Amino acid sequence: MEKELSKLMGFRPEIKVVDATLRDGGLVNDFYFTDEFVKELYQTNVKAGVDYMEFGYKASKELFDVNKFGKWKFCDDDHIREITGDNNSPLKIAVMADVGRCDFRKDIQEKSNSPIDLIRVACYLHQIPAAVEMIEDAKSKGYEVSCNIMAVSNAQEADLKIALETIAKSPADILYIVDSYGSIYPEQMARLADIFLNIAAKYSKQVGIHAHDNQKLAFANTIECCGDGVNYLDATYASMGRGAGNCSIENLIGFLKNPKFNIYPVIKFLEEQMAPLKEQCKWGYDWQYLLTGILNQHPRTAIAYTKDNRKDITNFYKEITSES
Amino acid sequence: MEKELSKLMGFRPEIKVVDATLRDGGLVNDFYFTDEFVKELYQTNVKAGVDYMEFGYKASKELFDVNKFGKWKFCDDDHIREITGDNNSPLKIAVMADVGRCDFRKDIQEKSNSPIDLIRVACYLHQIPAAVEMIEDAKSKGYEVSCNIMAVSNAQEADLKIALETIAKSPADILYIVDSYGSIYPEQMARLADIFLNIAAKYSKQVGIHAHDNQKLAFANTIECCGDGVNYLDATYASMGRGAGNCSIENLIGFLKNPKFNIYPVIKFLEEQMAPLKEQCKWGYDWQYLLTGILNQHPRTAIAYTKDNRKDITNFYKEITSES
């Protein structure tokens, strides 16, 4: 497969930057962002030329206690409207809905009544039929829809292809590669992108990438995908996201050549909002995440290690490689 | 060019890992490492299967005040011997000698009298004739010799090819790509590697890569090169190195498949030696380095910003993009 990156000294106008700061970053602070932060983030995204802003999850209020999380875990349409007003901007609004953790029939309104543009349906490979049901529901209500297949590094290639064919036959618009464990190397990412892009092309779908920074490869994997033809690129301010975090939007905007993207508002937001936030909560690349990434493990052990302020990385390595 | 990475599920035994912690890291702490640190580093490298350990510079004692730097800026043979004894190990010993900043005729002994195996001659593109003189001197004394061409991101391709032909005709064994500004993206790195590898193949030379982490791409660029056929891979513990630092050896050892490499001693050294060192001095990826990297500028402004503990990244961006 021929890289398209060289062509970016021009640029590919189809490329969309998706800011996932509130959603993936919300996993760090239980979605307790101040309204000021969210308003500034929205304004910054508009100024920076970002294409989508993901506000958070549409999580089930049956399953999750609304008193134990900030409002962006639930993303009521009214809360979004308080930030965006009528959203007179080219910035589109996204939310994520997890298979099995969302009362989508009740909580997702008709698009005509909602400020949301894109519903991102997140699922594991074994949940594809349930994902298709949600995709069909969201599409029938009038939304753009993506299907974000998590933990793709653990998928058998044959299973993945069957799943992708199934989703590609559904009304979903975008198929997302999600490197949940941050364990994928760029060349492997190129092979995955190839699989996704081939099936997507057959059904006229788009492909997206959501990377994690366990091995400091989130940005590298994102631009690898970009060069391969993936158009939807997830990123977050200061890499804020669960565990090792994501591809940073400052890296990505600094890389993309489309003049609609502006790095200055991004830098300003980093200084004014992200630097103080970094004092309050912890995320980002560190040794414990590298180790779970290398081992292709879920980062939950590394997140617990971080939360406990542990420094005994040698013991941690023994724990996560023990056979008991 | 076809990537070789896939073949690494086997591995390429020609791949050499070069630990540059003392040399590039010495630029962070003026080479004031404790003897205990250096001894532990040496032992760790032996256990981890690292191929070369760079001890520091052979800097001119005329140009630099020996009282203002730790001993690894000068790398007297006797000081190396105090660490390595007779070095009864497969680990080879390297030092760097900068063109114009080294009294090489006087300070570099005959190999038969020295613990050093590899002399790394560092130069800018306009210093090639002086580099060749040093290469010839070191080779005639019996050493392996590399030529490390710095700031390659600023080179015109035509100039670079002439320089590489000149060095390839010299007795140097290894031609090194040095991304001094951390500004090169993996696809550009692949193109550079191609240029280096083609000329190297013609003259039966090896190629090396020394990356910087300004855009969090040091590891990605290193494994890009590795996949392209570059065999000498520089890395440092915890990425320790000037400014944004280098490709981390923990990432690299975690990636390489040759069973001679062991990550456990690396992790142990991180906990016991690098974690305390990180409390004392500052290096590594941060926004100021990202910005000089994106702009393909020397990181000296970002290093000064870091030293001054500045947090006004917005002003910094204005400064480095101002035309005055």
Task: Write up this protein.
Two copies of one chain form a homodimer. The first copy, chain A, contains 13 helices and eight strands. The model of chain A has no long low-confidence stretch (mean pLDDT 96). In chain A, helix 2 (35-48) packs antiparallel against helix 10. The first copy, chain A, has 324 residues and is an alpha/beta fold. An eight-stranded parallel β-barrel of chain A has the order 1-2-3-4-5-6-7-8, surrounded by six helices. The first copy, chain A, folds into two domains: 12-280, Aldolase class I (TIM Barrel); 287-321, no CATH class. The A-B interface holds A 3, 5-6, 185-187, 213, 215-220, 223-224, 227, 248, 250-251, 254-255, 263-264, 267-268, 270-271, 275, 287, 290-291, 294, 311-314, 317 and B 3, 5-6, 185-187, 213, 215-220, 223-224, 227, 248, 250-251, 254-255, 263-264, 267-268, 270-271, 275, 287, 290-291, 294, 311-314, 317.
What is the overall pLDDT average of chain A? 96
How large is the share of residues in beta strands of chain A? 5-15%
Dominant shape of chain A: globular
Q: Please give the radius of gyration of chain A in angstroms.
A: 19 Å
- Count interface residues per chain for the largest interface: A-B, 37 and 37 residues
Distance between the termini of chain A: 43 Å
* SSE arrangement of chain A, N to C: EHHEHEHEHEHEHEHEHHHHH
- Put simply, the count of helices of chain A is 13
Spatial ordering of strands, largest sheet of chain A: 1-2-3-4-5-6-7-8
Class by alpha and beta content of chain A: alpha/beta
**CATH hierarchy class name of the largest domain in chain A:** Alpha Beta
Q: In CATH, what is the homologous superfamily of the largest domain in chain A?
A: Aldolase class I
CATH architecture of the largest domain in chain A: Alpha-Beta Barrel
Q: What is the β-strand count of chain A?
A: 8
Query: Biggest β-sheet of chain A: count, sense, barrel?
Result: 8 strands, parallel, barrel
Overall tally of domains of chain A: 2
Do you know the CATH topology of the largest domain in chain A?
A: TIM Barrel
Helix % of chain A is 40-55%
EC number (chains A, B): 4.1.3.39
Keywords (chains A, B): Lyase, Manganese
InterPro entries (chains A, B): 2-IPM_HCS-like, Aldolase_TIM, PYR_CT
GO molecular function, one term (chains A, B): 2-isopropylmalate synthase activity
